[in-house]
């Protein structure tokens, strides 16, 4: 590491005076990187082994029994909550919030239960068991775990894949006997619980492997596009129920949308039930109106009006006394068993067919839940750990799969209410479960006359939040082309194809977009802002000086394989070297172009933008250095980070080029170039 | 754009003196970005429409007939070559190179023809037609288009997918009649030509859409890993031929390697033909030896010894006179038709089954060929355009598909010989084709007694280059973990699964790696290098000063969705704010940790590393700014690029934070912070 700098001899002579000054009137001085590092630097070269030793020392140095116990207790955030619990401050709010959410859980649970093609009682189970377990392991008090529209739809798809509908039900020709129906339901419930077990295991595995960080790849535009697209599917799946068409609501097909709509329209034309439609539409209007009312007078009345529950009660009472089902042939919920299920080990029969849907559902459920939890944590300033959340979701799904539950997830609409109704701690879930438990034990048989169209109305109105998300498209459209593209591709592929295909398309698009972003960055010419050592883009700072015969460039991205060809083309373009051959039949205008070919003697590339460089990038810089040398041009680099210099070292960059081509700052490099030019007899100080 | 800077009033007073000076003894002064832009900047806000207008003006301003003609002629690089052709200088070298390559083409064409499961004559066709067409449209004189091992193997797989082997051939129980064999061959040839047509059309489409830039995603580690892995498959496919085992050489299977090897070993145990094995191994030894000889004495003798051709001739003569086929039951090439095929339109019967293999083959063939062409262009300094190359490959495949050719690609072994034998221009291909044409017309029947084991030996020896590539693994291992990972994943998935699955796995891995690279960048504390305005990582520059109560940080990557959680965690860690809650059972050591909690009053984040920022990143900065404000800490940003500021503007960053938090340089921000600290009565100049 000797001082090999040609024009830097003064630096060592007067080390007292080594301040970097940009003023024109002083003697120009410049720091070559090597001498700078020699003077000030101390670059430790830790081997990989040293790193591991260091890490082990830091983490295992103070292992005590207490620490181990704390690590274990750390996994049960409820304990912290209880330890710090302030009864006077929190209890009332938590109870109110718990009851409010429980009241929402009842109709939503039944509605989403129907959406999974299972009997509605199973939705209530999912509103009960997972909530208790999330209370123990979860970290976000405002997240309402339970049934969720998009997940319910995906469960319905998974069930259909394993338990196909019998032909007579599809053709709707014969009336299905109660017995065969309950057999079919049993089979479906088995599939759903297996699915919950698998989803839970996937989430637990991710948590144990501490792969919670993977959720960062599920970015906001992706989740927004995905859930908006899924909302379209949920909506269309509810149309037959709403219009009282007695037919399996979902029709399969690879290219889903067009086929589905044609069938749907045909069904609606022939088999519409006007009374069911009327009830459904009135329900929707009532719900919308009361939700608006709630929103409007939220500040004045503390307790939210339980509009959905009121609708359910009115609907049930009306239907019971008018005998809607027998007189007007309207589908109703039907007989519901009372009481909590006893624990049963989920069947493991169709595991092989369920693994792929389980992974998909696990991914969707955790991405939606975690993004919601993070949103609340930002708003209220508490910490949410992705790995702990994964543990909570996993435990919730695994344990509740023993109690005939299907996979659960956080629901946006309930979580917003849970947040708004004044609850502060994890105990909300406990109070909510107490209410739910009593309903399941005592009140479920009362709902037997509830018309299905009311449940469809509840689902449709609850989609409001997801549909409202579509305005994100406009937000991204204004701010970032690529994020907008990600949103659009995800949304369209979910709507046109299917929820799971859309999920994978969206994830692939995320990764591709991260690459595309670095493809064609700006490549700008810099100039010196007068009297300072600052170099700025000459387009935005037109007064910035460019010295003749010196070109200062900056490439606004790390240089690596995927943008190397772009860099090369643009680089030569910017320094006016034309690599292309002359045309076959020469046009005259082109000839004078080559006159000013060798305009520049020094090209300075500012590397402050290179956050990393790969082997292809280094090879290109070596190639360019040697090519420019042949043309009599000198290439200087400036402001290279340690990471980049490390790769240079590994690739033996300095052996293939020259040692002193790297300068500390751009200004140093320019000063060095100007000194060289001055020395070359022609005092060329003119400014372009 | 008024001057809203609090501590910057002096700037406007003495504008004469606005030089940036870092010296301690002068009055510290600092540039807030806004005032800096006001003073020097001029940020043009071009609308998207203006951009298009500008672009149209630039490109369509001077459209003349001559230009159009030139654009057309530009697509035929042979014309340039002929225009500039120097007979005295180039002709001799080109003829020698042409003949040398043609001599290599003959045995390789037959060998790779056999590898595709077609009769060997079709390999010779592929060595003839595509070469002529590439000569017209191609740009790289050293690239030898024709048969290539990996592509041949993939063609064999595609053919097997459409034309399954008859059961009796698989079980090898009966001797297949000549008639059924020729019928089968006809069918196979049809599939192969259809495949060539489709591959060509895919490549032409890519060329017309100017998607040649997509080849940048096929990075060097990927191609190296892929071809090395494919070489393993080519090698194993030749083992049965080499050992004289009369059985279909390839065995299908999703998880290929273990099954394949078990079957292979079983075959070898029972049906090995010792004479064939002996001939094969002797051939391999002779080839290796003569290749070594060629390499060694390359500089002394100009013409390369045609070792492969010699082996073929010796093999044929020996086999003919000893009657190897009838006496020792050794497979020979068999009857070969003489003459060139007349043009036939390829059959379009099994297009639907061939589209996916065609896309895969097109991708592999163009990535291998283009990467080779680029390698030669770097070495010899001529320009290779990916779009023009794509056009050339596409035309070669489409046109030659009418002449019973299967898909072609560049071959590494032949290209190296073509380069080494002194040829300089595209005419090499022409001379090579003249030789090949005469061989096909006159000499092919002579090869009927050539033992297959000799062809297997030729293929295996030619794999040397691809196997030798495996040392790339060690190269990448030393330089870049991620590139090494890409190589390994691609190689392993090709070897373990299959060539096409490996291709897709490798491409996905490339994209994922580009994202992973930006996940956990360095996040460093900066200090001022004494007497300069330069701020460097305090780990590598231990003498760099850190002012008390001021923390200067730099995050070595663009801030966007995928690294936002990491940024946040690390940021708070670096400024000693612990977001984690205290443990349930408090250990005593932890208590004193919180004493120095509010150590810093100013946090400065250098944003020179942000090449872009996305909406999530901006939201995080806003969140951090407001959180720090609540804790009584001020956040400054410095050195933000225009791109980043543009996103700030779009996200209304300044409305949600404060206007003057961005400074031009880090030094400006530090100076501003120190001024503020000084003003706050305590003259805190001490240096940590």
TrEMBL record, chains A, B:
PROSITE patterns from the UniProt entry: STAS
Subcellular compartments: Membrane
Residue spans of biased composition, Acidic residues class: 1-15
Keywords associated with the record: Membrane, Transmembrane, Transmembrane helix
Transmembrane segments: 91-115, 121-138, 145-163, 189-209, 216-236, 268-289, 301-322, 354-373, 425-443, 449-467, 474-495
Membrane topology, from the record: Multi-pass membrane protein
NCBIfam families associated with the record: sulP
Classification via PANTHER family: SULFATE TRANSPORTER
Name of the molecule in the record: STAS domain-containing protein
């Amino acid at each position: 590491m000797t001082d090999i700098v040609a024009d830097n001899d003064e630096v060592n002579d007067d080390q007292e005076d080594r301040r970097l000054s940009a003023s024109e009137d002083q003697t120009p001085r410049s720091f070559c990187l090597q001498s700078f590092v020699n003077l000030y630097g101390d670059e430790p070269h830790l081997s990989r082994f040293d790193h591991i030793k260091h890490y082990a020392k830091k983490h295992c140095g103070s292992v005590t029994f207490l620490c181990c116990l704390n690590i274990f207790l750390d996994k049960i955030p409820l304990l912290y909550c209880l330890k710090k619990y302030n009864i006077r401050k929190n209890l009332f709010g938590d109870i109110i919030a718990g009851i409010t959410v429980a009241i929402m859980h009842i109709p939503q649970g039944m509605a989403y239960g129907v959406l999974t093609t299972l009997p509605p009682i199973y939705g209530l189970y999912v509103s009960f068991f997972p909530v208790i377990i999330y209370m123990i392991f979860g970290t976000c008090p405002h997240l309402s775990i339970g049934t969720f529209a998009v997940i319910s739809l995906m469960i319905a798809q998974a069930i259909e894949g394993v338990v196909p509908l019998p032909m007579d039900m599809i053709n709707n020709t014969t009336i299905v006997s109660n017995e065969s129906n309950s057999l079919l339901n049993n089979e479906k419930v088995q599939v759903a619980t297996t699915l919950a077990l698998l989803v839970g295991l996937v989430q637990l595995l991710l948590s144990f492997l501490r792969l919670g960080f993977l959720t960062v790849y599920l970015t906001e535009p992706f989740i927004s596009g995905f859930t908006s697209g899924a909302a379209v599917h949920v909506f269309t799946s509810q149309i037959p129920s709403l219009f009282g068409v007695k037919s399996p609501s979902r029709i399969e097909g690879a290219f889903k949308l067009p086929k589905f709509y044609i069938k749907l329209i045909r069904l609606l034309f022939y088999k519409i039930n006007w009374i069911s439609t009327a009830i459904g539409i009135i329900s929707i209007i009532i719900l919308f109106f009361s939700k608006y009312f709630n929103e409007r007078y939220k500040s004045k009345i503390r307790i939210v009006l339980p509009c959905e529950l009121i609708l359910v009660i009115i609907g049930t009472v009306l239907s019971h006394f008018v005998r809607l089902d027998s007189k007007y042939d309207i589908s109703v919920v039907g007989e519901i068993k009372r009481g909590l299920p006893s624990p049963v080990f989920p069947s493991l029969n169709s595991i092989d067919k369920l693994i792929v849907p389980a992974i998909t559902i696990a991914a969707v459920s955790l991405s939606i839940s975690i993004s919601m939890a993070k949103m609340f944590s930002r708003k209220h300033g508490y910490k949410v750990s992705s790995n702990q959340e994964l543990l909570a979701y996993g435990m919730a799904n695994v344990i509740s799969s023993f109690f005939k539950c299907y996979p659960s997830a956080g629901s946006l609409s309930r979580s917003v209410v849970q947040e708004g109704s004044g609850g502060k701690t994890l105990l909300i879930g406990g109070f909510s479960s107490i209410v739910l438990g009593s309903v399941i034990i005592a009140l479920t048989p009362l709902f037997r006359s509830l018309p299905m169209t009311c449940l469809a109305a509840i689902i449709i109105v609850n989609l409001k939040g997801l549909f409202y998300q579509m305005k994100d498209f406009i937000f991204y459209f204004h701010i970032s082309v690529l994020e907008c593209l990600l949103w659009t591709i995800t949304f369209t592929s979910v709507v046109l194809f299917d929820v799971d295909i859309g999920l994978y398309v969206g994830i692939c698009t995320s990764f591709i977009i991260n690459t595309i972003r670095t493809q064609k960055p700006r490549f700008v010419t810099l100039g010196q802002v007068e009297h300072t050592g600052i170099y700025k883009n000459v387009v935005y700072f037109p007064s910035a000086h460019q010295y003749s015969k010196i070109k200062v460039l900056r490439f606004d991205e790390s240089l690596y394989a995927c943008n190397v060809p772009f860099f090369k083309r643009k680089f030569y373009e910017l320094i006016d070297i034309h690599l292309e051959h002359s045309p076959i039949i020469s046009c005259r205008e082109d000839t004078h172009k080559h006159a000013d070919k060798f305009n520049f003697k020094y090209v300075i590339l500012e590397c402050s933008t290179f956050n990393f460089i790969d082997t292809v990038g280094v090879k290109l810089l070596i190639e360019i250095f040697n090519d420019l040398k042949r043309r009599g041009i000198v290439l200087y680099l400036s402001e290279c980070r340690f990471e980049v210099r490390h790769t240079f070292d590994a690739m033996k960059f300095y052996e293939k080029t020259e040692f002193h081509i790297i300068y500390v700052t751009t200004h140093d490099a320019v000063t060095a170039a100007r000194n060289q030019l001055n020395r070359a007899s022609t005092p060329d100080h003119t400014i372009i």
